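Q: What structure does this chain adopt?
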Amino acid sequence: MANNPVGSAPPYIVTVTGYGSGGDGVARLDDGRVVFIRNAARGDVLEVELKSEQSRSARAEIVRILTASPYRVKPDCDFYPECGGCDFRHITYEEELWAKLRRVNDAIERIGGIPVRVSGILQTGQTDGYRNKAVFHSDGRSIGFYHSKSHEIVAIDRCLLLKDDLNDAIRSLTPVGEVTLRSGRNGLFQPLEEELDGLVFQISGFFQINTAAALLLYRKAREYANMQKNEVLIDMYCGVGTLTLFVGRDAGYALGIEHNQAAVEAARINARQNGIPHAEFMTADAAAWDADVAGPDCVIVDPPRKGLSPGVIRKISGLSPGRIVYVSCDPATLARDIRELKGYRLKDICAVDMFPRTANVECCCLLVKA
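A:
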């Protein structure tokens, strides 16, 4: 709480009680408004300056740390927090995991209205050097990442999140425009491949940026799907076919749906090179496709951050699968969609730390017919 009477002049003294979805510390002013504070830690007592105000919330910057949180640590990166790549380098990793679990459980309970709690979060143990993709920006003079709150360039020569070969490539880049680099098991700047649990995938379009954590996520999805050789699987956002093939290898038939033609072509190549002939792929919108598949046993969805559209929810309801495996990068839209998938109940949910040192968290859940 803030120790200022309503209407009093700054400075404002607040105690941080948690974290927002973007990683900002959260406190309350005496007038009841929530205040979001960049680079704050749970338990901090802070003097803050309000930078923007609305009727129910405000944003603030730290003026002084009066009492430091026991979870606060000295950031190990010279570019933090100006660079927008990380959110949590000022707190312990254990506190970061607490924040992510709290975010998932709050969303499931508050938005979804479901009394199911996630008790743990899967993690690789590797908090740095995990990113296999980077998007570099340039202002014509220097190369780096965007500032956390603007498109101003923060020049860098090394990023702790990136794999070594991506960091090595920074020095050779020309400071012009935007450059996207990927790293696969066969290097940089060529048709890339990545391996997951014995399956080899060509990377085209979307692919998880943390390969080791993706393996944890996909194994959980495979466990939840529990496909049998006489069953049918449909993956409605299949990309290059990673989940379709990873999970669908256990099925009798697997169909992947994807609107991006290049990704579908890569998925077909991946199916052939991994010897999974019972997997097929089609180019179509997830909400509007027609195939001779009725009553699939399981549907997998791994939508973008905005979640499922009403049309996709209607499509799933029409298919009436026995179970749904939902992979999500946003707990809020996941909780909303679980609530909207009428006739299904949440049986289990798992969190995965796909993006260490950032506020993002991945989830995988199993829905079964109620």
